[in-house]
Each structure stands twice: as C-alpha cells, then as structure tokens.
Design a protein that fits this description.
The structure holds two protein chains of two kinds.
Chain A (H helix, E strand, L loop, with lengths): L8 H10 L5 H12 L5 H13 L3 E3 L9 E3 L1 H26 L1
Antiparallel strand pairs in A: 1-2
Helix pairs in contact in A: 1-2, 1-3
Chain B lengths: L1 H7 L5 H17 L4 H26 L1 H26 L5 H15 L1 H19 L3 E8 L2 E8 L3 H25 L1
Helix pairs in contact in B: 4-5, 4-6, 4-7, 5-6, 6-7
Classes of the chains: A mainly alpha, B mainly alpha.
C-alpha cells in the first residue's frame, strides 16, 4: 500500500486560497508548507482551470505577469462543507481505530 | 533544463495559452526546473490536447456518434433478425432472399470478424462520447472520475448493441460448447 499518497490538488488550492488571494508560485510554496506536498506547475494549473470553470475561484487583475486568484463565495461554502465532511469521517475513523 | 521547460509551453493548445500562457510562463520562471517539473508540464499539455481533440465533437454531438454506431450495427442486426424470423418463427422468405448475397460476406474471415465486432464498436460509439472523464496523474498514481450524460439515442443504441452482443455470445456458446 502506498502510504505517501497526496491530497487532491483542487482541495489544496482551495485551502491555500482560504488564507487569502495568491498567484501560482505563492500557492505552490504555501501548499508545500502546510501539506508537505510539492505540486507541479501543470498539476496546479489543471486544478486552477477546473476550479475556475466551476466558479469556486476567480482571477484578480494581474500583477505584472502573475495573476492572483481568490475564493468565490461558492468556493468558500464548498470548501467548508467538504472539510466538515472530512472532519466527521476522520473522527469516525479515529473513534473506530482507537476503540 | 529551463529552456526545455519553456519549449514545452509550445505544446499547449493555443486557446489555453491565450488564457493562461502569461501567468503560466511566469510560474515556470519562478519554479526550479527539474525533470519532475518537465514531466508534469508535458503530461498536462498532452491531457489538454487529448481532451480538446476528441472532446469537443463528442461533447457537442454525441447523437451523431450513436447514429454512426447504428449504421455499423445495422448489417449484423438485420442478419440476426432475419435468421430469427426463419429459424424461430418459420418465416423463411426474407432470409432466403438475402442469403445468396450474404453468404460470401459472412463466410469470409474479414466479413465474419466485422459482423461479430460490430455490436462492440457500436456500443463504444454510443457510450464513449457521453462519458465524461477527468483523469490525472498525482503522486505516482493515475486518478480519475467518470460520469455519464447520455441522450436517448445513445442509450437506445447502447442497449441494442449489448442485446445483440449477448445474443451472439449465447449462440456461439450453444454451438461450440
């Protein structure tokens, strides 16, 4: 069994943007810092493209050639629901493992 | 290595580059160029091309693929239908009328193969365009999700293809086992 399996890049991007708007490189650094997972540029932009299509994130005006992104209202609600569900599942798993 | 990474940008679809090209170039300039980064970018560019290549037509006109599947399926369906009429219901005239023309076809290895594979090809033509796939490579694993949004035409062709394939399988088993 692979014990080093990483988290969903889309979720990592949403969590990163929950702390405030960021451009691509800042997201990569933030994700590596809080999740210990190094995303590739292609993987990151695959996630950004999907999230933007789903209106969960939106671009801000570019700063030089860097485009920051931020969570939309739908994105914040989606992230809150998703991590709440994960938290409930994690708690159930912990209770069962420890009992 | 960095030059190699920048060259990979040319592999991206033009529309994607128009939307994300500047910021993605900047991200590449900001990111250390490693073999992993090269692979990640090449994989993403390839995935985008594959999606746009088959995706656009399939997404917008899945019924056309189903109708093409129906055309592929038709000779096999007619042959089986007329054979059933003759050998199950005793109505021999339609089958006997086409038999002289069909015999060279169904006894030739290529013709036999085409008639046998037709239901599977028709099924693929009806189903593949209505399946939405999101496949990506993450942490050394292929991960993906599939969803289905099928018009009635595609469902009808798919069900017919499965029915004919199952009938042929049962017939073959009864004849050979």
């Amino acid at each position: 069994m692979d014990r080093r399996r990483g988290a969903d890049p889309s979720l990592l991007v949403l969590i990163s943007l929950a702390a405030g708007p960021k451009h691509g490189h800042a997201m990569l650094i933030d994700v590596e810092r809080f999740a210990g997972q190094r995303l590739g540029p292609g993987t990151l932009y695959g996630a950004i493209e999907r999230l933007e299509q789903d209106a969960l994130i939106e671009p801000l005006p570019p700063e030089d050639r860097r485009t920051p992104y931020r969570l939309t209202g739908d994105g914040a609600r989606y992230l809150a629901e998703r991590v709440s569900r994960m938290q409930r599942l994690a708690q159930i798993a912990l209770d069962r493992v420890q009992s | 290595m960095r030059r190699c990474v920048r060259l990979l940008l040319c592999l991206y679809p033009r529309a994607w580059r128009a939307r994300y090209g500047d910021e993605f170039s900047q991200l590449i300039d900001d990111t250390p160029a490693t073999p992993g980064v090269v692979l990640d970018i090449a994989r993403h560019a390839l995935a985008l091309h594959l999606l746009s290549l088959g995706g656009t037509l399939m997404r917008t006109q899945p019924q056309r693929f189903a109708l093409l599947g129906a055309a592929v399926l038709l000779p096999t369906a007619v042959l089986i239908g007329l054979a059933l009429l003759k050998y199950v219901l005793g109505i021999a005239a339609p089958f006997d009328a086409i038999e002289p023309a069909m015999t060279p076809l169904v006894t030739h290895p290529i013709g036999e193969t085409l008639l046998t594979l037709a239901p599977y090809l028709a099924l693929a033509l009806a189903v593949v365009p209505v399946v939405r796939g999101d496949v990506r490579w993450e942490d050394g694993r292929l991960r993906g999700t599939l969803s289905l949004a099928a018009p009635a035409t595609n469902i009808g062709i798919a069900v017919s293809s499965i029915a004919i394939a199952m009938f042929m399988l049962v017939y073959w088993l009864s004849e050979n086992l």
